[in-house]
Amino acid sequence: MPAVTETRETVEKLAKSSYEWGFETDIEMDIAPKGLNEETVRLISARKEEPEWMLEWRLKAFRMWLEMKEPEWAKVSHPPIDYQDAHYFAQPKKKPGPKSLDEVDPELLKTYAKLGIPLHEQALLAGVEGAEEQKRMPVAVDAVFDSVSVATTFRKTLEEAGVIFCPISEAIREHSDLVRQYLGSVVPAGDNFFAALNSAVFTDGSFVYVPKGVRCPMELSTYFRINARNTGQFERTLIIVEERASVSYLEGCTAPQRDENQLHAAVVELIAMDDASIKYSTVQNWYPGDDEGRGGIYNFVTKRGACRGARSKISWTQVETGSSITWKYPSCVLAGEGSVGEFYSVAVTNNHQQADTGTKMIHLAPNTRSTIIAKTISAGKSDSTYRGLVRMQPKARNARNFTQCDSLLIGDQCGAHTVPYIESRNMTARIEHEATTSKISEDQLFYCRSRGLSEEDAVGLIVNGFCREVLKELPMEFAVEAQKLLQISLEGSVG
Amino acid sequence: MSDFLKIQGLEARIDADGTPKEILKGIDLEIPKGEIHAIMGPNGSGKSTLSYVLSGREDYEVTGGSATFKGEDLLALEPEERAALGVFLAFQSPVELPGVNNANFLRTAVNAVRRARDEEELDAVAFLKAVRAETKRLSMSDEMLKRAVNVGFSGGEKKRNEVLQMRLLQPSFAILDETDSGLDIDALRIVADGVNSLRGPDFSALVITHHQRLLDYIVPDRVHVMAKGKIIYSGGPEVAKTLEKQGYTQFLEAAA
């Protein structure tokens, strides 16, 4: 797998300074004026050439949002967000397809290079004509470059398997019935403040449809980048996996350095039918703000999966190292008998970062099972909270949950909090919860250092060991990247 | 080469719940290149403290004296710098590192030390070859390489793992802090063989032990008796035998 190796090597090269991915690409932009009103929603819908029903759906969400209040229950704090002081639409101006990489906007290529995307993959992403014939990589990338998918790669291979993988705006136009049937069926437009906002103004994201009996032939991957100044990015991802089908989806994030906080409110919906399985992996490394906590991304995300079919399975794995504030609870609604929900999470906070993250496992059907493994690492002056809900509904006979929450503290100025909510309405359900809090001990550090490891390498090794149960759930190439990120995120946190 | 390891008037204390407690009260010790010395002494005499101070543990405060190694001020170096210079401590109670794969730990350590010594790093294949040869010598199973460092290891397995690390890191001066405790006679032989095979003109060691038994297998050039933070008697290998028969009393009385 040369591409994987190449990507990994590039990642290793990239992973040198505390935040090398703080750069900005100067590309001609098509930007909507600042502010949020019905006109903004209409403009987005018009630019995306959406059908009438979609516009109505957005407007309905927008009107609900106007009636809603920003939630305050999370253990995070930030100055009030001025929703009128942001652009809600920005896209690079389109040019006809370039003949070779030489003709591609060099700024765009620089961005790709800094992101560590291999050259031949760059050609595909930039839409170079003929580049698709050279595709020989096991990973398909749908690059979301500021709200617009510049190109989708590997579509032919996927099409042959019957898999649809495209930008959601394209799916709204070309697979209208599917989108209309499922959009908002897991996360309704009025679900919460940020979901409503997203429903009104989402500009892009990915759409995946895997038909009956098909195992998706490759890992699907998306790079999200926030690139224009003050454009909150609102992705919408919808993944539908039919009976006996399966898919593994990778989402990776980096963002340029900023002075002002940027709002990011994504919605991800997953739907699994009978015997279907979805594996959704995230490595999130958005700009966390500087050492003083200035700047950085506000990451307010709603992710939810519905196990609708019997014996279906949805597995969330996340490594969260970035953003100044993370507010995120990838959840599973276990409606199919014998369905399985999993949540594996590593959340790292350093400096002034705040994270309030966890999951919800809603057991509706008999014999459903869920596993939650949450690892929280706090360093510097950061604050991290695990917040999780396990709910056994009356029909959830013999349902089982196992939860393990481990917190690791580095230094004496950080905080870790565990807030488990457990609700059982069925006597036969079994719920287990384990929680630990520990510090990296002097004994461990000294042991490693006496073997020649620097203090930082020792911390990296111990932290990676602490997270091993989660990291092993990640696809190989992501696991390597994640290990690097953990170490970078904690640089300078000891001594 | 008498300036290989030279300890003069070394004093150190530890903070015991707010009150400083003097543990080393003026240690004088020289270990020439290529020699193996043993330190014996009753519990609480400061043997383990000496090993920690020499390897750089931060809990101890050096209040006087000096320690030089290969002409460098050992006490001014970070623990990892001492390791690079060739100091190795085999722990009395090896520390557990949950989730950290033993083979990965060993390779990281070996390459960190090799880097610091301007030697080429070992790739995965070369490392595996080196480590397999050593585990075979120490009668360790490959399975121990796959487990987390020292987690769930028996006492004997932990000690073998220490000797494995020592052999891979190729120190020029090793401190073995009661490496014999908790070992049955077969394991003791294997561990002793691991040390003896390093013996040569470029390898010195300080063997800390309670029992003469280990010194039947690792025959020391010198034996030092330590009590109350000082070395009170030094002699040849026969001292260990005398101690085993007669106890520490006569040495303590002679020193008083």
From TrEMBL, chain A:
Start and end residues of each SUF system FeS cluster assembly SufBD core domain: 224-466
Annotated InterPro entries: Fe-S_cluster_assembly_SufBD, SUF_FeS_clus_asmbl_SufB, SUF_FeS_clus_asmbl_SufBD_core, SUF_FeS_clus_asmbl_SufBD_sf, SufBD_N
Any Gene Ontology biological process: iron-sulfur cluster assembly
Domain SUF system FeS cluster assembly SufBD N-terminal: 158-216
Signal peptide: none
Sequence similarity: Belongs to the iron-sulfur cluster assembly SufBD family.
Protein name: Fe-S cluster assembly protein SufB
UniProtKB/TrEMBL annotation, chain B:
MF-aspect GO terms: ATP binding
Domain of life (superkingdom): Bacteria
Keywords: ATP-binding, Nucleotide-binding
Ranges where the ABC transporter domain occurs: 5-253
UniProt-listed Gene3D superfamilies: P-loop containing nucleotide triphosphate hydrolases
Transport keyword on record: no
InterPro entries reported for this sequence: AAA+_ATPase (IPR003593), ABC_transporter-like_ATP-bd (IPR003439), FeS-cluster_ATPase_SufC (IPR010230), P-loop_NTPase (IPR027417)
Membership in a protein family: Belongs to the ABC transporter superfamily. Ycf16 family.
Name recorded for this polypeptide: ABC transporter ATP-binding protein
Organism of provenance: Gluconobacter thailandicus NBRC 3257
